[in-house]
Amino acid sequence: MPKVMSLYERIIAPENIYAAIYSLESFIFERYLLNDKDFKVYMQLHDKFNDKFIDRYVKKCIKRIELIMKSNHLFDCEVYLKAKSYDKKNQKVEFRPIHSAPLLDQICMVSMLSVLMFDDSSGVRKLSPISRLLPANFYGNIPSKNVKELFKPWNKQYKEYSNDTISANRTYYENKKYKYELTLDLKRFFPSINPVFIFNYILEKWPVNTSHDDRKWVAIILEKLLFFNIKLDEVLKSYYYPDNFENVKGLNYNIGIAQGLPQAYFFGNICMTIIAKYEKKILKGDSYYYVDDSIIYTSKEVKTDLIEKLSAQIRSEVNKYLDSKALQNTSLKMFHRMVENGYNLIIHPLGGGKSECREIEKIDSLYFLAKPASILPFEIRTAQDEFEDITLRGKIDAILKAIDLLIGKAKAQENMVELKRLNRYRKFYLNRLNYLKLSQTENLFYDNVKVDEFIDKFIDKFEIKAPPSESNFFNLLENEVFSFESQSIAEQVANEKELSDKFINTVEAFEFSCINTSYKSDKKNQLYFSKTLSTICKLDLIPTNRYNSLINNKITKGLSDQKRLKTTTKINNIKEIIESIN
Q1: In degrees rounded to 5, what are phi and psi of residue 217?
Q2: Among residues of the chain, what percentage have pLDDT more than 70?
């Protein structure tokens, strides 16, 4: 009878670490935040048959995991500030903190995370009891039983979320089961989640029949996946640590869940299970969740007092899990006693486009936008020639014109629920249109423009020369495809030093102007867009052939050169290939 492995043994098992490497492309969400060396290794690891290289890397992972789990060490984490909106009232730019860590550490994190998310003990991937806490009406960042991916693909999941909510809208409009459609969004979702709450909540929900040693390892895993040493220039800390936090000078730990790292989205969903529970209890309707975005159909007319009641219930539940005594790291305990009162999960107040409540209205237009969206990626992928590409461009152009008319109508009616959905469809179709344009022309997104002029066109379009208070950049950031276009331009000008310098310098100057300080750093750039675009401009982005090792394998070559082989010879050759890979 095979020996039952302890939780720790499962983590450092080479097959567990290889499984993390095998799904690598699905969880490195911010590959352009990796340093140059890590990016090259990331590309090399695309070749899953490069057994010698991967074996060496697995051994590195085992050593790193042993050090982290058997000491007081925490993973180190870089923070990059991503401008997201302009606060007119306080006249300052608001940033979203995006976290990154060395590639080796992110693979180690997923190796540790996998024993929380999955049960692979039978040889077939199954969801763990913690993953099974996520209900069927959750769509975003859902653990995948396919070992090629950590989470189910976001594009398929988001399409399903959109289609199901639109279908629900039509159904409830016709059968009158519910009267109101409510959209709720949370303020600064990831930074507002107290990691101590997630730590204690998962520990409580872990199966009671777990051995004492395994329960100890679960606590250690959670501590290492929730808390990090933060690397951030001193002058930027005021943009990372919220105003309502006490002075935490000298203790450089993360605030909230570290968005950008693989585990953040799993922990975010765990938090949402509490929120969903009380929304169901108080609103008594049918709900649909894509991480912190939710659409709820209810017969209750939701007003400010009900939102406040809901927030109070959520706070009361979270407060049950804020005891930090189970943490091993003494400094962490001290830090979280200092900042505990600064955490607050807040639902955006009604109005303003984030949280809205309206009577259910028929949205046939969205239904007809969803239909072509579901088949468009397939049509683009299978287009046979330039004529089909041109036809698809015409189709998308027509859809975008229709969406712009609908957006104008929704604005006039102040229908923020529909406006939010329309803007998302607009971004979807705009992304596909730009993808087609890139495949057909060197002039990117601007027709009849010379290569050396399209950077100026881009700068003018997104208004990144004007000061943040005067620029329309933040409205365009929300409703256009700045990231797609900027990264595509960076790829195009990577080999043209003069053009790439002009492009990066302009973006960098705008980002620096978003900070109310004379901040300059010679050491590194911790502003998100400048970092990602400069990485693209200087790296070789030619993808690694996934089968390079097999192509260059001597035995494989010998097998392909022989036209006639006896059955026994074929079998022996195949055996040799398998043995050489293993």
Answers
A1: -70, -35
A2: 82
Alpha-carbon gap, residue 205 to 133, rounded angstroms: 9
H or E element that contains 77: strand 76-87
Compute and round to an integer the Cα radius of gyration of the chain.
Answer: 26
And the tokens for 520? 């300059």
Kindly give the pairing relationship between strand 180-184 and strand 356-359: antiparallel
Paired tokens of 316? 């009361």
Residue found by looking up tokens 């494989």 in the block: 556
* Residue closest to 248 by CA, chosen among 342, 369, 329, 171: 342
Distance CA 24, CA 46 (A): 8
Q: Residue 15 — left, alpha, or beta (φ > 0 → left; ψ -120 to 50 → alpha)?
A: alpha
User: In angstroms, what CA-CA distances link 231 with 79, 524, 558?
Assistant: 7, 11, 51
Task: For residue 254, give Cα distances in angstroms to 93, 224, 346, 519.
Answer: 21, 12, 19, 21
**Which residue in 116, 316, 138 sits closest to 203, CA to CA?**
116
72-98 b/e with 16+ CB inside 10 Å = b?
A: eebbebbbbbbbeebeeeeeebebbbb
pTM for this model (two decimals) = 0.87
Contact 348, 355 (CB under 8 A): yes
Question: CB count, 10 Å around CB of 367?
Answer: 14
Residue from 118, 108, 239 nearest 516 by CA: 239
Residue 25 CA to residue 43 CA, distance in Å, equals 10
Secondary structure tally for the chain: helices H, strands E: 23, 9
Strands 76-87 and 229-231: parallel
Rounded Cα gap, residues 199 and 464, in angstroms: 41
Q: How many other C-beta atoms lie within 10 A of the C-beta of residue 208?
A: 7
Distance between CA atoms of residues 363 and 404, nearest Å: 15
Give dist(CA 57, CA 351) in Å, integer. 51
What are 111-162's pLDDT values in tens digits?
Answer: 999 999 999 888 889 999 999 999 999 999 999 999 999 999 987 888 888 8
CB 167 within 8 A of CB 159: no
Structure tokens belonging to residue 350: 């009604």
Contact 294, 276 (CB under 8 A): yes
Q: What is the pLDDT of residues 500-547, one digit of tens each?
A: 888 999 999 999 888 876 666 544 578 999 999 999 988 765 556 666
Q: Cα separation of 269 and 264, whole Å?
A: 9
Kindly list the distances between the CA atom of residue 115 and the CA atoms of 24, 111, 222, 295, 368, in Å, as whole numbers in the listed order: 16, 7, 11, 31, 42
CA 211 to chain centre: 34
Q: Return d(Cα 390, Cα 403) in angstroms, integer.
A: 20
Residue 526 CA to residue 207 CA, distance in Å, equals 41
